[in-house]
Write a structure and sequence with these properties.
The protein is an alpha/beta fold. It folds into three domains: 3-97, 3-Layer(aba) Sandwich (Udp-n-acetylmuramoylalanyl-d-glutamate--2,6- Diaminopimelate Ligase, Chain: A, domain 1), CATH 3.40.1390.10; 102-317, Hexapeptide repeat proteins (UDP N-Acetylglucosamine Acyltransferase, domain 1, 3 Solenoid), CATH 2.160.10.10; 322-347.
């Protein structure tokens, strides 16, 4: 597909600086721009590339003023926020590339399931009894949708996803390949012979609207009740959410975060990679947790920043870390002082 600067500017409500008839048929990073491609500049660190880029059209912030001459063949489109506008175009491009509505021949859909309009279901996908699939849903090949599962409108489920019985997926969610939603929580009780007896996990998982779940992430079903992921949450690849966990609105987690059972996470949190959070604690809204931290206790103050393992207040952590880095010099100085004291005693 080909678009002109004029068409793009109309979509983004932007101002054209250059040739309104300039056309593009692809996308590129600004440092790798080629003729016929559309790029963007949002981060000032990348400004140097705009002066040499060969991209035909570049989306920039409204306040951008070139400090040097641009490629005369490059047309600018000035918008309020370049990054979000480019993201909007990427979303449109992704939608254009989506599969057309159809149920492929090798897919199985239970006669007791309900399937909405404009749905794509890929080959070797299995839709179980009582499942409800909303409108405009895309379910890619080799996925499993269990008994009584509900999938909301406009949700995308990529290849190889497994959603166990009774789970509920909201509208406009994206679930990437290899995700497992609703597997049993890690519930075992030692018996009199010191063997571990499985505690049946009979709850479910609820994902609200506008959630993204990265590849190979697992969200366990509750023992009783529900494991709940609230609206707007973004989970990276390889995240583990334990049974009966609650994650608040718009919280984001980077790869390899592990949240143990029954933890309650607030909204608008940001959690770095490889963070571990113990079970049965609560974390306040807006809590920020640095990568590889281990959180062992409840945090009540909103907006707290945590670092370290065990994690504690970031400012205290930084001071302690500076002392830790100086420890070899401190020990050397201590030995010198001990030698001086020894000499004084001998005299």
């Amino acid at each position: 597909m080909e678009f002109s600067a004029q068409q793009i500017a109309a979509i983004l409500e932007g101002e054209i600086v250059g040739n309104p008839n300039e056309k593009v048929n692809g996308l590129s990073k600004i440092e790798e721009g080629k003729k016929g491609t559309l790029s963007f500049l949002a981060n000032p660190k990348y400004e140097e590339f705009i002066y040499n880029t060969k991209a035909s059209i570049v989306i920039v912030n409204k306040d951008f003023e070139p400090q040097k001459s641009l490629n005369p063949e490059t047309t600018l489109i000035k918008v309020e926020e370049a990054y979000s506008c480019f993201a909007k175009l990427l979303g449109m491009y992704d939608a254009a590339m989506a599969k057309q509505p159809m149920i492929e021949e090798m897919a199985y859909v239970s006669p007791n399931a309900k399937v909405g309009e404009n749905v794509y279901i890929g080959a070797f996908t299995y839709i179980s009894d009582g499942a409800v699939i909303g409108n405009n849903v895309h379910i890619y090949p080799n996925s499993y949708i269990g008994d009584q599962v509900i999938v909301g409108d406009d949700t995308k489920i990529y290849a190889g996803v497994k959603i166990y019985r009774d789970c509920k997926i909201g509208a406009s969610c994206t679930i990437h390949s290899g995700v497992v939603i609703g597997a049993d929580g890690f519930g075992f009780a030692p018996n009199s012979e010191n063997n571990y007896q499985k505690v049946p996990q009979i709850g479910n998982v609820i994902l609200e609207d506008h959630i993204e779940v990265g590849a190979n992430t697992c969200v366990d079903r509750a023992t009783l009740g529900s494991t709940i992921i609230k609206k707007g949450v973004k989970l990276d690849n390889l995240v583990q959410i334990g049974h009966n966990v609650q994650v608040g609105d718009n919280t984001v987690m980077a790869a390899q975060v592990g949240v143990a059972g029954s933890a309650k996470l607030g909204k608008n949190m940001m959690i770095g990679g490889q963070v571990g959070i113990v079970g049965h604690i609560s974390l306040a809204d807006g809590t920020l947790i640095g990568a590889q931290s281990g959180v062992p206790k409840t945090i009540k103050k909103e907006g707290t920043t945590l670092l370290g393992s065990p994690a504690y207040d970031a400012e205290d952590y930084k001071k302690a870390y500076m002392g830790f880095r100086r420890l070899p010099q401190i020990l050397d100085r201590l030995r010198e002082v001990e030698e001086e004291l020894k000499k004084l005693k001998e005299k």
